[in-house]
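Figure 2 data, in text form.
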Amino acid sequence: MKSMHLSFLLLFVQCFTPVYAQRVMVDADAAVRYILSCQKPTGGFGPENMEYADLAWTYPAVNALKILGEEIPNPDSCYINGEKSWIEKASWKNGTWYWSLHQKANLYRIMNRTGPLESDFQPGKIWNLQFKPRTNYTEFREYVDGKFFDMASLWYLIEAIYIPEHAEE
């Protein structure tokens, strides 16, 4: 039954992809120049005309450079100085903790890092994942306790647990 579903899916994709797919030409050199113009002396990436670097800029910049087949200049400095989100840098702020966790886990993966993702993500830790209904739009860093509030937050948490555990595979 599984192979029948897969065969149907492949047939569907083969039949309908040409209708909906578009070829897009990308000026990769211009994209790389722009991305590199956003790299800070510390190695992380941030807004072009600003001094700071953070995860929200570093993860997409590094991911795009990897997709375009480019080397990451100063990769160790880039990771060390670009792997924290703005909410981690300013403890009085609150924000999108789970989205930042997703970005951090994927930056960790694409930069081939090893060791714990965060101090609370030690290899071999036993996680008790728990649904906790969201009561408002304030988001807390409760993922360290295994709490999630919707499908996306569950995915980001599982991803952050999985990636470091399988980093060397």
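Caption note: The helical segments are 2-20, 28-37, 55-67, 75-82, 86-89, 97-110, 151-165.
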